[in-house]
Amino acid sequence: MMATAGSSAAGARVSMRAASGIRASSSSRRAAVVVKAANVNIGDSLAEFLAVATPDTKLRQLMTSMSEATRTIAHKVRTASCGGTACVNSFGDEQLAVDMVADGILFEALKYSHVCSYACSEEVPEPVAMGGSGYSVAFDPLDGSSIVDTNFSVGTIFGVWPGDKLTGITGRDQAAAGMGVYGPRTVFVIAINGFPGTHEFLLQDDGKWLLVKSTEEIGEGKLFAPGNLRAIFDNPEYSKLVSYYLEEQYTLRYTGGMVPDVFQILVKEKGVFTNVTSPSTKAKLRLLFEVAPLALLIENAGGASSCDGLVCRALDVEVTAHEQRTQICYGSKGEVARFEKYMLGESSASLTLSRPSKRPCAERAR
Predict the structure, then answer these.
(1) What is the pLDDT of residues 100-138, one digit of tens each?
(2) Whether this model's pTM surpasses 0.90
(3) 150 and 238 fall within a common domain
(4) Are residues 68 and 250 in contact, defined by beta-carbon separation less than 8 angstroms?
(5) Is residue 144 domain-shared with residue 235, that is, in the same domain?
(6) How many Å separate Cα 253 from the centre of its chain?
(7) What is the CATH number for 324?
(8) Cα–Cα distances in Å, from 324 out to 17, 308, 311, 319?
(9) 8 Å CB contact between 44 and 211
(10) Poorest-confidence range of 108-117, 151-160, 271-280, 341-350?
(11) Are residues 335 and 204 part of one domain?
């Protein structure tokens, strides 16, 4: 993973020239993205960004530790041997060896951050004391591990909650959320609750993270990633929705990995991701480890989310159990409104997107 001194220096010079070019190009849409509420600029380092995004030094330390773990996992994914499975987690899911490696890296990073009270993961769902104080973290160490051997992009998902509770909370209570995307590029994508936008940092040859994109608006566009298509056979509402996408000639962009499929909504600033249940295909996605963190990333970027077959934003569903599962839709506000219209027979998205849902929404989703 480590580059030579010469290659590191050369990579750093290339990175600096690239960053300067990005700043100088006023015609590029990506180059023009600057967080409106604060002095954050494309080309800033992760440390510079965090210094502006939050005054909380503990949260800065935790996000820095997660970025370091992401960098290490990226190397492990690139060099992993994925010829077979290693073990089975407590939910009965088959795992590749790299899953457990990523899990251990994240737990170790959180322990040595000294600012994490408890942590749990999809592989170790019961909270483990980390010896620190300030925040608790839930994560999916390697979402999409079943497609690692095909060399598709995979990723890490995490949510950060204040205090030492990981139940009796909602996604809206998160202090921050993030994901690492391991593909041709390695990126670290984060949202800080209360700070505008969702922000993408690119890993450089010298190991540093540079801000390359900030997203504050997700517009309308015909791009769809339909998960769990088997559900169309006994979920007529979902079948009609998928038929709508096809009839309207939406562009299909689905990899089978939740991280890259949701990440493309942020990159393209349009589109919709769905993963719907049916009587024969039960909910697979975990609210705590996957759904709530990604909901904060999407909603902070100006998008929307809806889950559990209710007119209910994913950020408002109460986590009552670590293994709690749900269906989900992420995307632009218009696409989420369409999802609710088809799945519920009516659209109250304009209501739920204009103000937070009330507690009964979370209670009904249990």
Answers:
(1) 899 999 999 999 999 999 999 999 999 999 999 999 999
(2) no
(3) no
(4) no
(5) no
(6) 17
(7) 3.40.190.80
(8) 46, 11, 18, 7
(9) yes
(10) 341-350
(11) no
> What does the pLDDT look like over 210-268, one tens digit per residue?
999 999 999 999 999 999 999 999 999 999 999 999 999 999 999 989 999 999 999 99
Note whether residue 105 is domain-resident.
yes
Same domain, 59 and 134: yes
In tens, the pLDDT along 262-311 reads 999 999 999 999 999 999 998 889 999 999 999 999 999 999 999 865 66
Q: Map tokens 């998008």 to a residue.
A: 303
Please state, in angstroms and rounded to a whole number, the distance separating the CA atoms of residues 148 and 155: 10
Residue 312 is predicted with a pLDDT of 81
Give the other-Cβ count within 10 Å of 124's Cβ: 18
Residue listed under structure tokens 């006023």: 26
Among 100, 160, 168, 101, smallest CA distance to 130 is for 160
Give CA–CA dist 295/190, Å, rounded.
12
Using CA atoms, how far apart are residues 145 and 97, in angstroms rounded to an integer? 9
